[in-house]
Amino acid sequence: MEKELKNKERHIGYEVRTLDNMIGRRVNCWHSKMDEEVGITRMQAWIIGYVYEHSEKPVFQKDLEENFQIARSTATGILQLMEKKDLIVRKPYPGDARLKRLELTARAEKYQHGIMHNFDLLQIALKKDIPQEKLDTFFQVVDMIKNNIEKEDFHDKNIIEPGKGV
């Protein structure tokens, strides 16, 4: 497939998807090993990351429900299991006894620091042997593509719908 594309125009979507797959495989491998070692699910890992990234303000169960689009009962079950696994604690919120603030335990913070360390290593590997000016250009082009996608209204185009042919 790569040989065929050398003689033709390279397609941005194809290249981005290929790059995403390559990076994703590395990340999934690291995550899977760490998740297995700690004994957590991917959703629990996402919750740890969310609580960690938003630790400057109180995080409540309803924040997780909204952010991850999960039902209250689902969030409750996940958080109860995370408490049993010593990943989070629920602490009363001053001023409203009904609310319980979510905090990470030392065990969850250690896990999150490991994830962040792996992402730092990945970032170093991705940038290896690429001059800063090329990286600057890459990010400028990425921003331009994002802008093109955001401002493009595909509903006004002559997009061929499935089953309607060319």
* The CATH superfamily title: Winged helix-like DNA-binding domain superfamily/Winged helix DNA-binding domain
- Report, as a whole number of angstroms, the end-to-end distance: 25 Å
Order of helices and strands: HHHHHEEHH
Overall mean confidence score, pLDDT:
88
CATH topology: Arc Repressor Mutant, subunit A
Shape: extended
Helix-residue proportion: 55-70%
Q: Would you report the number of β strands?
A: 2
CATH class: Mainly Alpha
Q: Give the biggest beta sheet.
A: 2 strands, antiparallel
Strand order in space, largest sheet: 1-2
Architecture, CATH level 2?
Orthogonal Bundle
Total of DSSP H or I helical runs spanning 4+ residues: 7
Number of self-contained structural domains: 1
- Which class of secondary structure composition applies to the elements? mainly alpha
Task: Explain the overall architecture.
This protein has 166 residues and is mainly α. It has one domain (2-152): Arc Repressor Mutant, subunit A (Orthogonal Bundle), CATH 1.10.10.10. It is 64% helix and 9% strand. The protein has seven helices and two strands; from the N terminus they run H-H-H-H-H-E-E-H-H. The protein has helices at 2-6, 12-38, 42-53, 61-68, 72-84, 106-127, 132-151; strands spanning 88-93, 96-104. A two-stranded antiparallel sheet has the order 1-2. A hairpin with a 2-residue loop joins strand 1 and strand 2 (96-104).
